[in-house]
Write a structure and sequence with these properties.
The complex is a heterotrimer of chains A (about 270), B (about 375) and C (about 325). Chain A contains 14 helices and no strands. Chain A has about 270 residues and is mainly α. Chain B folds into two domains: about 230 residues, Rossmann fold; about 140 residues, Nucleic acid-binding proteins (OB fold (Dihydrolipoamide Acetyltransferase, E2P)). Chain B has eight helices and 22 strands. In chain B, a hairpin with a 2-residue loop joins strand 1 and strand 2. The radius of gyration of chain B is 25 Å and the shape is elongated. Chain B starts with a strand and ends with a strand. With about 325 residues, chain C is an all-alpha fold. Chain C has two domains: about 55 residues, no CATH class; about 230 residues, Orthogonal Bundle (MetI-like fold), CATH 1.10.3720. Chain C contains 16 helices and two strands. In chain C, a hairpin with a 5-residue loop joins strand 1 and strand 2. In chain C, helix 8 runs parallel beside helix 13. Classes of the chains: A mainly alpha (about 270), B alpha+beta (about 375), C mainly alpha (about 325). The interface between A and C is large, with 97 and 105 residues.
């Protein structure tokens, strides 16, 4: 009776796991097959090779896209970390008039979809001369209400005695922030960095509007570019490109897994 | 370091937290601030530390007004209830962190870390992170961190209340030993009167925003200035009995009856205003016996409501004429026991008479005839 | 008397003392308020200013050069709500959002239930079910485009094998919608799964032990213990899904292009097209305001009823 139950359970687990990872597995499999075999529907082909990857690197600007994404994601994440840390610090450790009101202002920004702001933002970026540039891709995202909330949650967990202790030692704000607050919130900082990096690595709409050349085009939009070009019929190369784009994501996720789980519920607030 | 508090007060918006605190803490003294939660003792400690600004009054360190000095200019060390260790630093780095601002030479720094860790017996654990240590060990690290600063004044805010009972009594001795060895002035906040009694050279009892009494532990125990101190110090708690002083002003009438049904009373040689009072008698000052000795003016029969055997002794809850008393019995008591006899004390020092309204102590020692001084009659 | 006087002198200080604050550093350091400036400046330029401009744009008719030509009041709003394409867009967006959100949560809950108990290979299954988490909408879209490609897609091959007539799902309205929903559920699965797993695991074991002793059936345990205990997470996920899905853009852009016949022309995509293909900023802006209202309401509900502690602690 019990072992029947167990077998039943395992059947479903395996079945569902296969279904869940099937799109990725099939993508990886296809990326290893010659396009000719794919086009012929010959999925059981044994002509496995990395030729598509070599082809993708040689014939498409995928490495350029990855570099662009890496630069923009890193810049935004760093900028966001600095800006959000400073703001969260003030909201947790400083008392001032209108603190609640100002916090509410931050809260409101989470209710306003970026999609509704793209037209004026596009015009702003254009007037700054930042179209098709790293500046235009990164600077608008340096502030994040969500990031402030996430760090604020972590900072709130710091015992008030540690602030008192820092006062007895005569530490100023910068030293308290760098010497106690940030190291104390390490795991949230890591979660923050991973979350923000992935979010911006996966960004689509804004780079789609503001980049015109491969010199600045990041990965996700690059993928669309490849789809639009005639390489698209070359499924093997396309799949290889998609997997190449996916690899940094997986690396970041694996590195940060331990921390990410902890901060996940906080991270969930954005969705 | 000698500390003087002059007319110190603290208000938050409209709420007064401390009113008119005046006291002096002597050089090298182990000074305990004790009181129930919300009595303002932690606030007072933080005002001394400079963490909380004062509303009015002055604080002097060795005759120097430090009222408006920042905490770091007061050259003190503080030990917190939750230890306030930095979880990301090893034990020795935590101590180093605490003395980094002193501008010591590298060798001096290392020497101090070594010495402090040695004093709290944590040298073998110096490379560990705080999380890898027990609660008691973590508190030792916090102590070592304070010791290493060599500050002439150390403040401790309920440092033992996160520890279990066994560890707490161990650490009590440890802190007393460290204080003796180092000789700094130590101000120690606790809500636990046992800690106050066993550790302090002098104790300040705080309640309801005000100083209730300052004195040595025995002074507080023997001559509480008011009902609050009487009740707060000592375990089990002092019995507080509502009594009536009759029109003559010389008879304290108790709500108890002897075996023959005669009401009990204490007799005074000198009159006090008649009216309602509260009489405090400590459980250990009541004698209990299980043998009927007939009618005696000091002895009453009681019904035993509850027995708590502590091994060597027992604490009994008894009643006579619907009034409860807690009695400390020097022997074990059979928990089936229902009946006993309690003898009220006749030594004036064991009777604490308090005004009904404010609870202030009424001095009885001069209210009895000279030849009887020290002894009071229980009469029928 | 003297202490009274000093007390009055200190009154301004007391005012600054907020409820929790007791510390000098907290109050005597207005300089640290500059820490807020960088974030505020960016939010001002790239969130509040554009929001205001969008509202203004929505009240103007746009000329061929993309400039606000003339004030038209609410005419743009009247126009979009008379526009069958926008109404269709709104309706289909709602349908897509709700179906996707509910499906994602149901499937994720099922998966989470399956791995809550201690079993061999637990870690593997968890990783498998959570694996879709970091995958971008663009990559997911390409993967699904491949699966459903009419000439080489595996699903299509499978459909052909079982003798289906219509194999190019992308040309049928329901087919296109189906692919979008499927890819969207797949993408959201990892996140919902991990959240629900966390919620399920945080239900104290003792609750089930008590129920076991009381002789409750599995069914009763699920309904009386599990569901109430994880309902905050369910609700939280639902709202988060709605907020996220309402902004769906990438999948539409890559998989269906809004088609066929505007059937998957969701609001965010329509705004983009009206703005950057038709350069009709007035219309696009009023559509953007409609989107904003929906998102704002959903976000407000989220703030108000879920994870309250996150925001007001």
């Amino acid at each position: 009776m019990t072992w029947l139950k167990t077998i039943n359970r395992y059947f479903w687990l395996i079945f569902l796991a296969v279904i869940t990872i099937a799109p990725i597995l099939l993508g990886v499999w296809a990326s290893l097959l010659p396009t000719a075999d794919i086009a012929a529907g010959n999925f059981m082909s044994t002509h496995i090779s990395l030729a598509n990857y070599i082809g993708a690197i040689q014939t498409t600007p995928v490495l350029r896209y990855i570099t662009n994404s890496f630069v923009t994601s890193t810049l935004i994440t760093l900028g966001e970390l600095v800006f959000c840390t400073l703001a969260a610090y003030v909201f947790v450790f400083i008392d001032f008039r209108c603190k609640k009101q100002l916090f509410f202002v931050f809260l409101i920004t989470m209710m306003l979809p970026f999609e509704a702001q793209i037209i004026p933002n596009f015009q702003t970026i254009r007037s700054f001369g930042w179209l098709n540039s790293y500046a235009g891709l990164t600077i608008p995202f340096f502030a994040s209400a969500f990031g402030v909330f996430m760090l604020r949650q972590a900072f709130l967990k710091i015992p008030s005695e540690l602030q008192e202790y820092s006062e007895i030692l005569g530490m100023n704000h910068t030293r308290f922030l760098m010497g106690i607050v940030l190291p104390y919130s390490r795991s949230t900082i890591v979660t923050f960095v991973i979350y923000m990096f992935l979010t911006h690595w996966n960004a689509y709409l804004w780079p789609l509007i503001t980049t015109f050349t491969d010199a600045y085009r990041p990965t996700q939009v690059g993928l669309k570019q490849l789809q639009a070009e005639d390489t698209f019929s070359n499924w093997g190369v396309i799949m290889a490109t998609a997997i190449l784009i996916l690899i940094p994501t997986l690396i970041v996720l694996i590195i940060g897994q331990r921390y990410f789980k902890k901060g996940l519920n906080v991270g969930g607030a954005k969705g | 370091m000698r500390i003087q508090l002059k007319n110190l007060s603290k208000q938050y918006q409209d709420t007064e937290v401390l009113t008119n605190i005046n006291t002096e803490i002597r050089e090298g003294e182990f000074f305990v601030l004790v009181g129930p939660s919300g009595s303002g003792k932690s606030t007072l400690l933080r005002m001394i530390a400079g963490l909380i600004p004062t509303t009015s009054g002055q604080i002097y360190f060795d005759d120097q007004d430090v009222t408006n000095d920042s905490p770091k200019d007061r050259h003190l060390a503080m030990v917190f209830q939750n230890y306030a260790l930095l979880p990301f630093l090893s034990v020795q780095d935590n101590i180093r962190f605490g003395i980094r601002n002193l501008g010591l030479s590298k060798t001096e720094e290392e020497a101090r870390i070594f010495e402090a860790l040695n004093m709290v017996h944590l040298l073998p654990q110096r490379h560990r992170k705080p999380k890898a240590l027990s609660g008691g060990q973590q508190q030792r690290v916090a102590l070592a961190r304070a010791i290493a600063t060599k500050a002439p004044l150390v403040l401790m805010d309920e440092p033992l209340s996160n520890l279990d009972a066994q560890l707490r009594s161990e650490m009590r001795q440890e802190i007393v030993r460290l204080h003796k060895e180092i000789g700094m002035t130590l101000i120690y906040v606790t809500h636990d009167q046992v800690e106050a009694m066993t550790m302090g050279d002098r104790v300040m009892v705080l309640n309801d925003r005000q100083i209730q009494q300052v004195g040595t532990p025995l002074e507080l125990y023997n001559r509480p200035k008011n009902a609050f101190v009487g009740e707060f110090i000592g375990s089990p708690r002092m019995n507080i009995i509502d009594v009536q002083v009759d029109e003559t002003g010389q008879s304290i009438q108790l709500p108890f009856k002897q075996k023959n049904g005669v009401s009990m009373a204490y007799h005074l040689t000198e009159a006090i205003p008649s009216g309602r009072y509260r009489l405090g008698i400590r459980p250990e000052d009541l004698q209990v016996s299980f043998v009927d000795q007939g009618s005696h003016k000091q002895i009453m029969p009681v019904k035993i409501e509850a027995v708590a055997n502590l091994g060597k002794e027992a604490v009994l809850t008894v009643t006579n004429s619907d009034s409860n008393l807690v009695v400390n019995c020097k022997t074990q008591v059979d928990s089936d026991c229902r009946q006993a006899f309690v003898k009220l004390p006749s030594i004036v020092d064991q009777l604490h008479l308090f005004e009904a309204e404010h609870g202030n102590t009424v001095d009885l020692s001069d209210k009895i005839a000279a030849e009887q001084r020290g002894v009071i009659d229980a009469i029928s | 008397m003297q202490s009274r006087k000093t007390a009055t002198l200190h009154t301004p200080n007391i005012k600054l003392t907020a409820v929790k604050s007791k510390l000098n550093l907290r109050q005597n350091s207005k300089s640290a308020l500059w820490f807020l400036a960088p974030s505020l400046i960016i939010l001002l330029i790239f969130t509040f200013y554009p929001m205001v401009v969008t509202v203004i744009n929505s009240l103007f008719a746009t000329n061929v050069r993309g400039e606000n030509a003339r004030f038209v009041g609410l005419a743009n709003y009247v126009q979009i709500f008379k526009d069958p394409v926008f109404i269709k867009s709104l309706g289909h967006t709602f349908a897509y959002v709700f179906i996707t959100s509910i499906l994602t949560i149901i499937v994720a809950l099922l998966l989470a239930r399956l791995v809550t108990q201690r079993i061999k290979g637990q870690a593997f299954f968890r990783t498998a079910f959570a694996s879709t988490m970091g995958i971008s909408a663009a990559v997911a879209s390409i993967l699904f485009l491949f699966l459903f490609n009419p000439s080489v897609g595996l699903v299509v091959t499978f459909l052909k094998a079982i003798g289906a007539k219509q194999t190019n799902l992308l040309v049928s309205p329901t087919g296109a919608m189906f692919i979008l929903i499927l890819s969207s559920v797949w993408m959201g699965l990892g996140f919902a799964f991990l959240n629900l797993l966390g919620a399920l695991q945080s239900v104290p074991e003792s609750y089930y032990e008590v129920a076991e002793i009381a002789g409750w059936s599995n069914w009763m345990q699920t309904w009386k213990i599990t569901v109430p205990m994880i309902s905050p997470t369910l609700f939280f996920l639902f709202v988060v899904e709605i907020i996220g899905k309402f902004k769906t853009f990438t999948a539409v852009d890559l998989i269906t292009g809004g088609g066929p016949d505007n059937n998957t022309n969701f609001v965010a995509y329509k705004i983009y097209q009206d703005a950057f293909a038709s350069h009709n900023f007035g219309i696009a802006s009023s559509e953007a305001i409609v989107l904003t209202i929906v998102i704002a309401i959903a976000t407000w509900i989220q703030f108000r009823y879920t994870e309250r502690s996150v925001f007001y602690k």
